[in-house]
Design goal:
By secondary structure, this protein is of the alpha+beta class. It has 17 helices and 20 strands. The protein is about 35% helix and about 15% strand. It starts with a helix and ends in a 9-residue tail after the last helix. The structure holds flavin-adenine dinucleotide. The site of flavin-adenine dinucleotide has 39 residues, from helix 1 and strand 15.
């Protein structure tokens, strides 16, 4: 149910195992929030997600996505921050180049980076295996629980006491305090910030934000490079069209324009899904790619679920806090400080966030329901990385915006959509003054638009905030982290399940394998109505 990238991944694995698989998607296109859409005649943009960084190499290989046309080009630089004083600082893919760039700002910080980077990468490698398997369900009252705990123990075999304490600091500490402790230059700290806390509630000084440093060092891309960032040729939709082709190739059927209205169950056993047009589809197993609130609070009868489960699902923190503004421009944006010899690809990423304090203040304003005047804007001039996205002479720029509230203190998002768009343009104009007069088309996606168009409850881009209390065995809610749900035969396979949001394919992969294991063990026989 749902043809987001996780739904398609799950469908591919199920169909490839020989199961008769049908994907029903409410929109007219597949992809969920991993899509390429036309935003002006002949101009295509990755309207929602825009950079591929954590797509699991195993999924790329198993689904043979390259054979289905997926091509990703490493972003080099992986990110770039123009500062208000006119300096542009780039984070290159090659470590030696990063060190050289940091040296220009602070030789001491460059040394610190060399010292810390290896340590972070090593810690990230301890977490990596947890990505592609169900999280442990710690419980010392069952054999399965003990097995889970043993598995965790084995994963950390060889870890030193110092590494454990570092890991705990990363899981619980704040990015801001980590950076303040280790680095001197505000610019260097901002460079780290520019790569972190995306889509999350909380500024860089919120506890738990340091974990992002490790998440971003998980390997990605076909060649499993640690800290991979990729431009997807044809936009992010090329990932999901390759996945749809893979799923069809394995024998799955995909039906778009087919919204599920109800997941029908009797006495805790799945019976069927009912589409909005009244079509009933009897089925043994449903994997829901919709987020947990949408799945359980909108589509399953409340009487079918334990009250404490419903209470926990209602409590999942979603609530924004991001928006997206996509633009077509009549000329390339000229960001100040860009060296004249940079190639178009090197002129494609510009993150506008001048300091940690700026980001912290921005979140403080948004958390009280206001739209900050000073926004953090992450700009990608996508047509510089892939000229096929726009006709010659035109440019496509996508801008991810944080922080903005889902619930406004006053007024409605319908009334404030243009205000948000204008504030984003003013912010960009501070760094690229030619942009305002070159805008040919502008698409503003508020958190409410993300909910209405893309089906993201409360506009949350990860189907639930990525905070420690909502991760691992607490995702989506405690006791139900292994893709199963209180309805036998109904599973979650989207970003609301472990390991969470981002274009990874991991929840879809893990949920499908859980279903296959349950079928093998005969666990689902009783679920057949
Ligand atoms: C603005 C934005 C920017 C982002 N930027 C990035 C980025 O650069 N890099 C990155 O890695 N991640 C990014 N993300 C996050 C990432 O895109 C998502 O976390 C991820 O794509 C979620 O995938 P999914 O398959 O689990 O769910 P979704 O993509 O949300 O798919 C769920 C699908 O279920 C369908 N559905 C829902 N209800 C029903 C129903 N009743 N019947 C039938 N179908 C239904 C929906 O229409 C949708 O197609 C971004 C997200 C957004 C919104």
């Amino acid at each position: 149910m749902g043809a987001g990238h996780n739904g398609l991944t799950a469908a591919s694995y199920l169909a490839s195992a020989g199961l008769k698989t049908l994907v029903v998607e409410r929109r007219d296109i597949v992809g969920g929030c991993c899509v390429t859409e036309e935003i002006a005649p002949g101009c295509r943009a990755s309207t929602t997600s825009y950079i591929a960084s954590m797509l699991r190499p195993e999924v790329i290989r198993d689904l043979k996505l390259a054979e289905h046309g997926l091509r990703m080009v490493p972003c080099d630089p992986a990110l770039q921050v123009p500062f208000p004083d006119g300096q542009l600082v780039s984070w290159w893919a090659e470590r030696d180049q990063v060190v050289a760039e940091l040296k220009k700002i602070s030789p001491k910080d460059a040394e610190t980076f060399v010292r810390i980077d290896g340590r972070l990468k090593k810690l990230a490698r301890y977490l990596q295996p947890f990505f592609l398997e169900p999280p442990p369900e710690p419980d010392t009252k069952s054999l399965e629980g003990w097995g889970s705990l043993l598995r965790v123990g084995q994963r950390f075999r060889g870890i030193s006491g110092t590494e454990i304490s570092h890991l705990v600091s990363f899981l619980t500490g704040s990015l801001g305090e980590f950076l303040d402790r280790n680095y001197q230059s505000e610019k260097v700290k901002t460079l780290f910030l520019a790569n972190n806390v995306y889509g999350k509630h909380g500024g860089p000084y919120q506890p738990g934000t340091a974990l992002g440093l490790l998440f971003h060092l998980l390997s990605g891309g076909e060649h499993e490079a640690q800290g991979f960032y990729g431009h997807v040729m044809g936009g992010m939709g090329a990932i999901t069209s390759a996945m749809a082709a893979a799923a069809r190739g394995f024998g799955a059927e995909i039906r778009t324009g087919a919204a599920v209205a109800q997941i029908d169950s009797r006495n805790g056993r799945l019976r069927a899904v009912v589409l909005e047009d009244g079509t009933e589809i009897r089925t043994r197993v449903v994997l829901s790619n919709a987020d947990p609130k949408r799945t359980f609070l909108k589509m399953v009868a409340e009487s079918e679920l334990p009250p404490e489960f419903v209470h926990a699902v209602r409590g999942i923190k979603m609530d924004g806090p991001c928006a997206k503004v996509n633009m077509v421009l009549s000329e390339e944006p000229r960001f100040r400080g860009t060296p004249p010899n940079y190639s178009p690809q090197q002129r494609s990423l510009f993150t506008l966030v001048p300091s940690l304090e700026f980001a912290e203040r921005c979140y403080d304003i948004a958390k009280f329901g206001e739209i900050p005047e000073q926004l953090w804007v992450d700009c990608v001039v996508a047509s510089n990385a892939d000229p096929s996205l726009a006709p010659a002479g035109k440019h496509v720029m996508t801008c991810f915006v944080q922080y903005v509230p889902y619930r406004l203190r006053s007024g409605t998002w319908e009334e404030k959509r243009d205000l948000l768009g204008d504030r984003v343009v003013s912010k960009i104009a501070e760094y690229a003054p030619n942009v305002p007069d070159s805008i040919v088309a502008r698409q503003v996606l508020t958190p409410l638009d993300l909910e209405r168009t893309y089906g993201l409850t409360e506009g949350n881009i990860f189907h639930g905030d990525l905070t420690l209390e909502q991760l691992f065995f607490n995702r989506p809610v405690a006791g139900w982290s292994q893709y199963r749900t209180p309805i036998a035969g109904l599973y979650l396979c989207g970003a609301g399940a472990h390991p969470g949001g981002g274009v990874t394919g991991a929840p879809g992969h893990n949920a499908a394998h859980q279903v296959l294991r349950d079928l093998k063990k005969g666990r689902l026989k009783e679920a057949v109505a």
